[in-house]
Design brief:
Layout: H1 6-38, H2 61-88, H3 91-120, H4 125-153, H5 165-190, H6 214-239, H7 245-269, H8 274-322
Length: 323
């Protein structure tokens, strides 16, 4: 790609910082949403988009928590709109990032609609789970955009990771497992199955997996997939240990997964304390961000390798014609 002008690079750098801040805000919103659920405050504002019929309601602790969650979500929406306006003002940035901004607004609109449905449908499990998954996708899309903007602001060529085909396939598999774990976590939370297995590491003192049916089965599948994520991240970190930037993200994901398993165990053994429940959701989102950004590095490496092969082919063709 052609490098940006000096003004374009400065704008991309500032926009990258803004996108990174918005990604952090989206991640924090997931943690606050977990606090809302854990405190039973999801329907403290029983209507939407107002709260008890008012823009600014009379507050108690639960209403303040839910209203604060909505306020943070509204601030994130305004921030994304401001970021889009800054990028679309410059032709060179608009040409490269317009499609990405359209995706961001699609995710944002979906997330807003799901937030409203979650309230209006009385915390229906499918809306709660979809709301969580879309929130994680939005945070990842913002973090991905931030990395791309920082890359665009650099005049020199970035250093790409070096992935073997097997390493790339393993990364895709781990990404799928992490995505599944986010879905399962949302289902466990929305179906109130957090204590369906009230012991750890066994389930209710029987075995690791006494059944795969009902709420106990849902909790068991969530645990088993967590172990698969941990194993996959361990293999990935080892496989990609010399793979440049993607290796750092793989090791970060592995460390977060190991902490997450400990936090999940504490969540069960201490019977779902609010703070640990919120930490559990925040760590899950951080793992998804790490693995998602590792996937970005993998795609960039594949594209760079493809462009290198094409460049060598053109060069050989030119040399052959010269002879």
């Amino acid at each position: 790609m052609e490098p940006f002008s000096d003004d374009g690079q400065r704008t991309a750098r500032r926009a990258g910082r803004a996108a990174a801040a918005l990604a952090f805000c989206a991640w924090a919103l997931i943690a606050v949403g977990a606090l809302v659920r854990a405190n039973g405050a999801g329907l403290s504002c029983p209507d939407w988009p107002l709260c008890t019929g008012r823009l600014v309601p009379a507050f108690d602790a639960r209403i303040a928590l839910e209203w604060g969650h909505r306020l943070l979500a509204g601030s994130l929406s305004l921030g994304i709109a401001a970021l889009a306006a800054a990028l679309l003002r410059r032709n060179e940035l608009r040409a490269r990032f317009a499609a990405r901004l359209a995706l961001l607004f699609a995710l944002l609109g979906t997330q807003v609609a799901l937030g409203g449905l979650t309230v209006l449908l009385g915390l229906a499990p499918w809306t709660v789970t979809a709301h969580l998954c879309t929130g994680n996708l939005l945070a990842l899309a913002l973090a991905w955009l931030a990395r791309d903007l920082f890359a665009a602001a650099r005049a020199e060529e970035p250093v790409h990771s070096h992935l073997s085909p097997g390493g790339a396939r393993l990364l895709v598999a781990v990404t799928g497992l992490v995505a599944l774990q986010i879905v399962l976590g949302g289902m466990v939370s929305s179906h109130s199955a957090g204590l369906a297995c009230a012991a750890f590491p066994t389930c209710n003192g029987d075995s690791l997996a006494p059944t795969l049916r009902g709420l106990v089965g849902l909790h068991v599948i969530h645990r088993l997939n967590a172990y698969a994520v941990a194993l996959g991240c361990a293999l990935l970190a080892w496989q990609l240990r010399n793979a440049g930037p993607v290796a750092r993200l793989a090791w970060t994901a592995l460390r977060l997964v190991l902490v997450q398993i400990a936090v999940g165990a504490a969540n069960v053994l201490l019977q779902l304390p609010v703070e640990i429940t919120a930490l559990h959701s925040a760590l899950a989102s951080a793992i998804a961000l790490s693995v998602g950004l590792a996937l970005r590095e993998s795609l960039l490496a594949a594209r760079a390798a493809h462009e290198s092969v094409e460049a060598h082919a053109v060069e050989r063709h030119a040399l052959g014609g010269a002879r």
